[in-house]
Write a structure and sequence with these properties.
The chain has a domain of 157 residues. It contains eight helices and no strands. It is elongated, with a radius of gyration of 52 Å. The two termini are 97 Å apart.
């Protein structure tokens, strides 16, 4: 009896919800008819001026309530589906309960085989419902994947049409990344090695040739010259100042010190 009363209550709720759904659908239909009437009135120039204010005041609440009405309709449809599944489960339980004898009904409903059969029937109905929901979700997912694939193909076609990712036909080619860049120290060392390193030997050979052409012999490099009282040679004070290193030499020495650190 408790199951029957619960079933009747669910049926009453379903009827109320179906009536509410019908009422909402009729409201949506009326709003659509009103929009069509407004469009027709716009086509008539004479009636458009007189009905402009009335149409604006009536169309604004309809446009504002349309999203809320659709959301309510979707929620009511979901509730109706849940209640339909619950009704199917209860119907299966009642069918099993009514098919038993009077002696079996006297036993405890929870601990008897009837309760197990009813529960099994309800679970089967719930499984069928979930299976249908899963199938619909899979179909929606497949449709979404197909739309995404079409959008990706369209995007790739647009990129190909615009010529993205291609080099221009004219202009200088890009430098390859594999080309190694020479460091400052290497360039300085290369310039230093290519500089004329034969300046001292050339000067010495020129001096020897000049002495030979003038008829004099080259003096030895070291001569026993008298020293002054301070132990210095007489021409030490008259010696030219020491030559400063060139800028290129200083840069190369600085680079070598930095690399050694």
């Amino acid at each position: 009896m408790a199951l029957r009363s619960e079933l009747e209550a669910l049926r009453a709720k379903t009827r109320d919800q179906s009536q509410l759904i019908n009422r909402l659908q009729s409201q949506i239909a009326r709003s659509g008819n009103y929009a069509m009437a407004a469009a027709n009135s716009l086509q008539a120039p004479a009636a458009a001026v007189s009905l402009n204010g009335t149409q604006h005041d009536a169309a604004a609440p309809v446009a504002d309530s349309a999203p809320d009405t659709e959301a309510d309709l979707r929620s009511l449809k979901a509730k109706a589906q849940d209640q339909t599944a619950e009704i199917a489960r209860l119907k299966a339980a009642i069918a099993v309960f009514e098919g038993t004898t009077g002696d079996e009904q006297k036993l405890s409903f929870r601990d008897s085989k009837i309760a197990l059969k009813a529960r099994l029937s309800g679970l089967e109905a719930q499984f069928d419902q979930q299976k249908n929901i899963l199938a619909s979700a899979r179909s929606e997912l497949a449709a979404a994947n197909e739309r995404q694939a079409l959008q990706a193909a369209h995007f790739a076609a647009e990129l190909k049409r615009l010529g993205a990712g291609t080099l221009p036909a004219s202009g200088q080619p890009r430098r390859s990344t594999a080309e190694a860049r020479v460091s400052l120290a290497d360039r300085v060392a290369q310039i230093r090695s290519s500089a004329p390193a034969e300046e001292p030997s050339a000067a010495k050979s020129n001096g020897v040739l000049g002495d030979f052409s003038s008829g004099t012999e080259a003096k030895p490099a070291r001569e026993n010259k008298p020293e002054t009282a301070h132990g210095e040679s007489p021409k030490a004070a008259d010696a030219p100042p020491e030559r400063k290193p060139r800028l290129l030499d200083r840069i190369s020495n600085l680079c070598q010190n930095v690399l050694m650190r």
